[in-house]
Specification:
The complex is a heterotrimer of chains A (251), B (425) and C (475). Chain B is mainly α. Chain B has 15 helices and 3 strands. Chain B has helices spanning 2-14, 17-51, 75-78, 101-104, 110-126, 131-136, 138-144, 149-179, 189-219, 223-252, 258-279, 285-326, 330-342, 346-373, 389-420; strands spanning 59-60, 81-85, 88-92. By secondary structure, chain C is an all-alpha fold. Chain C is 76% helix and 0% strand. Classes of the chains: A alpha/beta (251), B mainly alpha (425), C mainly alpha (475). Chains in contact: A-C, B-C. Chains B and C meet through helix 2, strand 3, helix 4, helix 5 and helix 10 of B and helix 2, helix 4, helix 5, helix 10 and helix 11 of C.
Chain lengths: 251, 425, 475
Amino acid sequence: MISQEIVLEAKDLSKRYEDGQLALDHIHLTLRRGQIYSLLGANGAGKTTTINLFLDFLKPTTGQAFVCGIDVEKEPLEAKKHLAFVSENVMLYGNFTARQNLEFFAKLGGRSLTKEEVYSLLRRVSLQEKAFEQRVKSFSKGMRQKVGLAIAIAKDSDVILLDEPTSGLDPKAAEEFQVILKELRAEGKGILMSTHDIFRAQEVADKVGIMKEGRLVLERSREELYEEDLVKIYLDYMGSPCSMGERGGRA
Amino acid sequence: MIAPLVKKEILSNLLSYKFIVVFLMTILLTALSMGIMYRDFDARYADYMLIRPGAGDLIALTPPNPFSVLARGLDESIGRSYEINIHDIVVRSGQKSNNLIFRFFPTPDLLYTVQVVLSLAALLFGFDQVCREREQGTLKLLLSHSVSRGELLLSKWVGNFLTLVLPFLTVFLLALLLLQLDPRFSLSWEGWLRLGLMLFLFLLYVALFLSLGILVSTLAKRAATSLVILLFLWAALVFLLPNLTTLAARQMVEVPSVRGLSEKRQQIWTREILLGIREFDPKAGQQGVASSWRRHFDVVNHEQDAMEEEYRHRFGRLVSVAKSLNRLSPVASFVYGVNAVAGTGIEEESRYKEEVLRYKNRVYKGLMDKSMLGKEASFSAFHYRYRSLGETFREGLWFDLFWLALFTFLFVVASAVAFLRYDVR
Amino acid sequence: MMKTLIKKEILNHLLSFRFLVTLVLLLIVVPATVVVLSNDTLRGREEYSRRQGEIERYMEKYAHFNRVHNIVAPSSAPLPFHALIRGISAEINQEEFDNDPLPQVFPLTDFTWIINVLMSLAALIFSYDSLCGEREEGTLKLLLSHSVSRASVVFSKLVGGLIALAVPLTASLLLGALWIALTAKLGWTIREWLALGVILVASLLYILFFYTLGLFLSCRHESSSSSILTALFVWVFFILVVPALSPYVASFLSPTPSRIKLDRELFRIYDTERDELGVKLTKEVRKKMQEQYPILLQRLSPEEEKRRIASDPEYSQAYKRLTEETAKAWAEANRIQGAKAEKLEKEQERKEKAQTKLSVALSLFSPLSAFTYVATELSSTGINNDDRFVFLREKWHEEFEAYRDKRMALLRAQDPQKDWWNTPVKMDDRPRFVFRELSLRERVKNAALPLFLLFLLDLVVMVAAVRSFLGYDVR
């Protein structure tokens, strides 16, 4: 049985950029083991900023981000040991083959993979066999996303952060992606994923958060969503001006 | 149709970081180089005024060439003082030779600045003209309008050439204007023609590298690849090829060392003096003694001249072999062309030396006649006339001009062909 | 962890286009340069021994003390290291009628040049996009999402890049070294090989500077295309501007009077002024002697004088004293003027030395100069080598003068009447000039300061690079 410990936590997290723009406004969120958390929101709502804060790509203006109880700002390297990351557009070392890329990043995570292990990982993300030993330079976006996911899987971390991983993929590839996410959830990983795609979010997520202008304006669990129409709520929020967050359910 | 395209090129250049860097580099280095070389000229001119031969001094000396401010070339060698005496030519050089550091590094004259820095700038302007637009996707957008590819390429060429050349021209003309305040730089109409020709060579050279840059940018897939290719090509064309071929020419033509020549000269005259002293016969009378000495001095003069001629001949061969090999790189043509126009080139120096030798022989004959016949000899002062532009042109300049223009033309045509068949996707 | 990162950097470089180009270029250029330069050296040696032979033949027949110093003027054969590094011993001779101006038009390539220009350019090309390039490509985010510290990323880039640059350099140098080793006539000893080892280390330090500089700039820029612009600008500044300008700036800041002017002044001191002084002093002497020997007051024609000397012992005595004193007066004039001239010459030398020093100091702002000094000092083709030649030449001059005086005294003892100055004599036992290079220890000592400076420059850019990457915005 998978324990319900919290693997990802944002406490009063905000970020103000040098130009004065408030990108993130006092966010609280938690993610438990074996959960998929979908962050919804328009472009510039603060989804990527949230993920960047967990990755120590940015320093928070206030608040703290925790990965498995480790303060990211204080011990970034320790925190990153428990993290894997798949970006919107996974970019790899173009001169290396898919296998070389995967081997390299697995080693950074402290794992030396045999060729067989590498191949089975690549098979798991359903990359075509003939691409295994090809230079990544020539890969399409879908293929790169697959390798990116394989890299995340190879790391075998507690948390996986995904930044709009399926945007721009064809439906079949997106579906395959979804299946793997579910498998990973079953293995007990905590998954935080930002996305535009409400339908898929509704289908797969255990928890959904809607962001707007840097705030987490609403948070719903899977159970609550059975009774509500997420699409309607989402469009509601997108349509009306933000009303200081009173309507937002904070966790 | 071309005008808006050219305007777009110029505008997008003016706003770029690239332009700022190149602008600063050009202005700074051109001004610095001309300032430094002017002061250098001034110092050498002061030297010249100090040792300018008075009436009756048997010294071959020419004032520093005002064009050396732009292309120093071998002007320092030409401007040395050659003191003629009966068995030798004593050479004196100015203040530079004792600071060894001068020997380590090249002279930063305008020629060098253009040769190295402006060519680099031209490549930086050209390297991403086509492939960057493709990478950014603007090429597709551009070509979706009713613009022919030829027009597009032409406007790129013209627009970039103008932005590249304008800062240089401004500083150059400004510096020339300042130089006009100095009476030593007042030029005859031929001087102005030379200046114009040098400027033309500068611009042609910049055009050459810009065309090369554009050519490679149409051939390479990515701007980064294009840049790597161009930088290595640049190093090869500007430095490697001319320098290595000069070395290779040395392997082909054997030329005695300067040191060997001067040792030989010493041996010849000390030997003849010794023989003259030992032959001295007080009974021979004044006439006899004088003719005995004359015989010995004739031997010295004759042997040294023969040696010199042999050396000049071989060295001329070396120079022509080296030049032919150097010209594998059009950069060599540029350097030779500018130096020839400025009157500071190798040919000019050789010609000058020959003139000095002729002067020496005139002086020698006069001195001998004086001592033999007791005739009072008067020596006309040494005078050197630089090659006229016409002579310069006939003696190789035409080829250098043609060669530079040919390369530029080929690069332009090749880039046009490549661009017309360019895969826009 | 570091190992993985470094391995990836090296592999990434090895697979790149720029690596291929650098490798090919160096594999052509370095061996070609070595072959040509060693042929040049061998030919120079042959020519040198031919010249020595000619001098020997001359000496057998015509050696006479009056002009012998014109003949046996010291010169040295090309050194073993000229097969690799030309240094300043290149024949740019300003004091002879014939000169060889070709190297002035296109300076000849040697190993120093290849490192100075080609390798610095290659180093910048290797590193200008190392961080901003990864950012643009997007791999930087993925890399940093793993638990790797930024410092280790920069460090691995430094080490990996340096190794990737060292590969083509060492490979091509090995080929060149093989040629040198096989050409036994060049006479490379353990000393040369050791010096070459140190030069290689210095080359790597020099390359590291430019590589780190590129890395630093790539942290400072958002895009690699602006990074390369700044990099090239800085390169032009360090490679082409600072070194070339330094001697000119030094000559303006610390001017020395021109040699031509000095020559004139010396001529005046030794000639006209000496004559004036001599005449003045002899007049004083004559006056003094006339007071002592009033006999001398009489005005006599030369014939009468001769007769008086023969007939009048008193007059003869006075006359002898007078000639003695006059000679002393002239010697005094010579001494005074000589001291004056020496002072002037010393002053000139001091000023020239000061100017050279200032040029060196100014040029050291650029690592190119630092490396040039290291390489030329270690290969004994540099400034100190030149000084040493001058020093040994002076020493030899002294020896030779002592030899001449000794021989002349012996010859005069044989026959005091004969004009020995202009008589051919055997001089087989004359002291011969032999040029011995500085010992390796001395060379290292001379190269230590620029080498240390190179190290310091590396450290400065390294700190700058690490610092700016720690604050780099990854997004």
